[in-house]
Design brief:
The protein is mainly β. It has one domain: Lipocalin (Beta Barrel), CATH 2.40.128. Helix content is 6%, strand content 40%. It contains four helices and 16 strands. A ten-stranded antiparallel β-barrel has the order 1-5-7-8-10-11-12-14-15-16. A two-stranded antiparallel ribbon has the order 3-4. A hairpin with a 7-residue loop joins strand 14 and strand 15. The longest helix has 7 residues. The radius of gyration is 22 Å and the shape is globular. It starts with 11 loop residues before the first helix and ends with a strand. The relative contact order is 0.21.
């Protein structure tokens, strides 16, 4: 299919996403909120560790931090030499209808925003956002115009396929809505908890304690720099709630979309990640809000929160290994810094 026709197969928010996004101060920010030195972001990252470290012998540690990132949604390679690939259509055949999947490729690099690791890469990821319209099934291997009946109903309108170098692959399915006038109300859902789940109950005091060297401004050379912002750890939605306060409800509109591995998606891990005392991904969910501050969508912002459910093998010193599920949550607000050509 000629590349010039491919953008027409993308859904509305995919068309807007094309280009590069980064941490830039938000409109009206007086202290650089949203930018590299003051990102409205957070990363809650539990890790297994058996040997006691700095008096910590619970069988796990935290590596929490703010983050910054570069996020690219690729464009027509004829116009953008840095693009990995053009948006690509690949139909899935059924019995009486077809699913006309169109992929928008992306790549992401996330860096620590504070602490001893500030400026170093903590996460890389690439994958595709799929638009999933239903269409007519052609008759024969190559259509001469004859088609079977159309069945337009669809359970999911979008999918996210992603892979990370840890050896994890994720397929999450969902839907999108919008545009909606105003500013989204982003709050933690009822019942949200960041604490480990399992039996017996695991000591979650690291989640409640500011483990950082408060005598020095970050970044600091402190191996116990685990939980610098207790309020963000308890409620990782808070940075996004704060970010929404910089937007004018009368001049802003947004798309919202969410994806989840439950009930029809899946996760896969390499063997190491499935071993005792290792960390495997068992579930993934994410919400995205694509905001614009004018009707022409010349100024665009992307807020997101993803919740990766980790299976963590915890072996406290002198104890017995138990597997717990612990949320690994990341949120951020980034600004579109370049756009793709149509």
């Amino acid at each position: 299919m000629p590349s010039a026709s491919l953008p027409n197969s993308l859904n509305p928010f995919q068309l807007i996403l094309r280009g590069t996004w980064a941490n830039v101060p938000l409109p009206g920010a007086t202290k650089g909120e949203g930018g590299l030195e003051n990102p409205l972001s957070y990363n809650v990252m539990p890790l297994p560790q058996t040997p006691p470290q700095a008096g910590q012998n619970l069988g796990y540690i935290l590596k929490n931090s703010t983050v910054t990132e570069i996020l690219k949604f690729n464009t027509d390679i004829a116009h953008d030499a840095s693009a990995v690939a053009v948006p690509t259509t690949a139909a899935n055949r059924g019995e009486t209808n077809a699913q006309l999947s169109t992929a928008l490729y992306y790549e992401q690099q996330v860096l620590f925003g504070d602490g001893p690791g500030k400026g170093t890469v903590v996460h890389t990821e690439n994958g595709t956002w799929l638009n999933l319209p239903m269409g007519e099934e052609m008759i024969g291997p190559y259509s001469n115009g004859a088609v079977l009946a159309t069945q337009p109903a669809r359970k999911y309108t979008i999918a996210k396929q992603m892979s990370v170098p840890h050896g994890n692959s994720v397929l999450a399915l969902g839907n999108f809505d919008g545009p909606t006038t105003g500013v989204p109300d982003i709050q933690a859902p009822d019942g949200f908890s960041i604490y480990p789940v399992g039996s017996p109950l695991l000591d979650h005091s690291p989640f409640d304690t500011q483990l950082a060297d408060e005598s020095k401004p970050p970044p600091v050379d402190n191996p116990n720099y685990q939980n610098p912002n207790v309020a963000y750890t308890q409620d990782p939605y808070q940075p996004l709630t704060t970010a929404m306060g910089f937007f004018d409800a009368s001049a802003t509109s947004y798309y919202h979309w969410s994806v989840n591995t439950a009930p029809d998606g899946m996760t896969m891990n390499i063997p190491f990640e499935n071993g005792t005392k290792a960390v495997g991904v068992t579930a993934y969910s994410a919400d995205y809000w694509l905001l614009s501050t004018d009707e022409f969508r010349s100024e665009n912002y992307l807020a997101y929160l993803q919740n990766i459910t980790l299976s963590v093998g915890v072996l406290p010193t002198g104890g017995t290994s138990v597997t717990y599920t612990i949320p690994h949550v990341t949120c951020n607000v980034v600004t579109q810094t370049t756009k793709s050509l149509p």
